[in-house]
Amino acid sequence: YWCESCKKLTTIDLSNVNLSKVTNFTYMFQNCSSLEEVDLRGVTTSSNVQAQYMFQNCLNLKKIDIRNWAVNKITNSNYYVEIFTGVPNDCLIIVKDESCRTWVRNRKSSFTNIKLASEITE
Predict the structure, then answer these.
(1) 79 pLDDT tier (thresholds 50, 70, 90)
(2) Distance (Å, rounded) from C-alpha 106 to C-alpha 23?
(3) How deeply is 54 buried, as exposed, middle or buried, from its count of CB atoms within 10 A (0-12, 13-18, 19+)?
(4) CB-based burial of residue 22 (10 Å sphere; 0-12 exposed, 13-18 middle, 19+ buried)?
(5) Residue 75 in 3-state DSSP?
(6) Least confident of 9-18, 58-67, 104-113
């Protein structure tokens, strides 16, 4: 519930924050209605990391960078229930590889802008 319902939060950059010991991101950005960009390059995932409803109702999200998520290690799909509910279909989701792209599509099949990190020029 770290930033849950932070209505004025528009961007957050956690790319240089070591969150390797955090195991629960549940509701982290839920209802952050003004949030447009989330950089989570500093977040890695493992089989025991939970992120239910993490971005739920982030209705203005334009970009989520999860390129360091190791989704191939995720063994419990219940830990990611409704993670992208309410996120716009055209939100740019940056992932590291095809298996991650497939994982995101399996969470929300209507996404239209899932890119590999190698396809992004910054």
Answers:
(1) confident
(2) 22
(3) buried
(4) middle
(5) coil
(6) 9-18
Number of H helices, E strands in the chain: 1, 5
Question: Amino acid identity, residue 85?
Answer: T
Q: Across the strands, what pairs with 12? A: 38
**pLDDT greater than 70 at residue 47:** no
What is the bridge-based pairing of β-strands 63-65 and 37-39?
A: parallel
- Render pLDDT for 6-42 as a digit per residue (tens, 0 to 9): 888 999 988 888 777 788 888 999 999 999 999 988 7
Q: Give me the residue label for tokens 């519930």.
A: 1
| Cβ partners under 8 Å of residue 12, min gap 6 | 3, 29, 35, 37, 38, 39
**Sheet strand arrangement including 63-65:** 11-13, 37-39, 63-65, 92-95, 114-116
Residue 96, classed as helix, strand or coil, is coil
Q: What's the pTM value of the predicted model, to 2 decimals?
A: 0.88
Instruction: Provide the sign of the torsion angle of the four alpha carbons 16, 20, 22, 27, taken in this order.
Output: positive
- In which band, very low, low, confident or very high, does the pLDDT at 73 lie, cut at 50, 70 and 90? low
